[in-house]
Each structure stands twice: as structure tokens, then as C-alpha cells.
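Sequence only, no structure available. Ideas?
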Amino acid sequence: MFEPQLDPVAVGRVIARFRTEKGMTQEVLSGLADLARGHLAMVERGERKPTLETLYRISRALNTPMWRIVQAIEQELEEEK
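Reply:
I predicted one. C-alpha cells follow.
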């Protein structure tokens, strides 16, 4: 039976890439997204999987539509295959 897995490391890499492209530190992004900086750091390292709510907050703080982040995650996962 096929059970797809979402690689949390790939998710974190994409979020970190969007953040650095915007010139933001983890401190700034976590403040704008109303997340603990430690939580954001763990998401970016792939130690935690973000909920949809967390991903939405991050996307709003980055002023980027959430679908763009999800699309970039999908592309990252395809490249890993």
C-alpha cells in the first residue's frame, strides 16, 4: 500500500529559503507570524512539521500566498525523487 510521506526537512528548507529571500531573520519572521522563534527554528530544521495554521501564519508574515510555498515544497519533493 502506498503511503506518501511529507519530508519535514524539505518543508523546512523551503520555508527557510523564502525567509532568506525576503531578507528576514528567524527572529523577525517568528515575530510577524506570532510564533516562538524556537518553534520556527525547529520547523526550518525539519524537527517539527508545521500545521496548516502555522504555514498560513508564515505565508502571511512573508507576504506570500500559501499556495506558492506549498508549490515550492512539492517541487522540492519531486526533485528529491
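The radius of gyration is 12 Å.
Hope that gets you unstuck.
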